[in-house]
Amino acid sequence: MSDIDDTTGGPAGAPASTTASNLFDLRSVIALLFGVYGIVLLIMGLVSGNDPANLAKTGGTNLNLDTGIGMLVVGVLFVVWVWLRPLKLAAPEPSDPDEREDR
Predict the structure, then answer these.
(1) How many folded domains does the chain comprise?
(2) pLDDT tens sequence for the chain (103 residues)
(3) Burial letters for 12-50: b for 16+ Cβ neighbours within 10 Å, e otherwise?
(4) Which of 11, 5, 9 is nearest to 83 (CA)?
(5) Residue 32's domain spans which residues?
(6) pTM of the model
(7) Residue 17 domain flag
(8) Residue among 5, 4, 2, 8 nearest 87 (CA)
(9) Segment (H or E) for 9
């Protein structure tokens, strides 16, 4: 028999991840923050990025646009990380002494 569980994609005996545990995963929160701030900076870069005064301050680059794109890429990387490596919940300890394995 295989040591890999087909339902969880992890080792046999590892519990499946739940929707609630994935929703409140810190990586998901960070991805959301990077996404929101990235969209705001992307819009600001597209709307007010061609102003010569702003371009002079940043050395000729549209820093809001560049940073917004970078933050969106990082947010997508966090989402891919959450999707490829979901959380695994710890197995509860058996309460019956007869069910415990000898250690």
Answers:
(1) 1
(2) 555 545 555 555 555 556 666 667 899 999 999 999 999 999 999 998 788 888 888 888 999 999 999 999 999 999 999 889 887 776 677 776 666 666 5
(3) eebeebeeeeeeebebbebbeebbeebeebbebbeeebe
(4) 9
(5) 24-84
(6) 0.65
(7) no
(8) 8
(9) none
The letter for the amino acid at 97 is P
Burial class of residue 79 in the structure, from the number of CB atoms within 10 Å of its CB (0-12 exposed, 13-18 middle, 19+ buried): middle
Q: CB of 31 within 8 A of CB of 1?
A: no
CA–CA dist 48, 70 (Å, integer) = 18
Q: Which one-letter amino acid corresponds to residue 34?
A: F
| Amino acid letter for position 73 | V
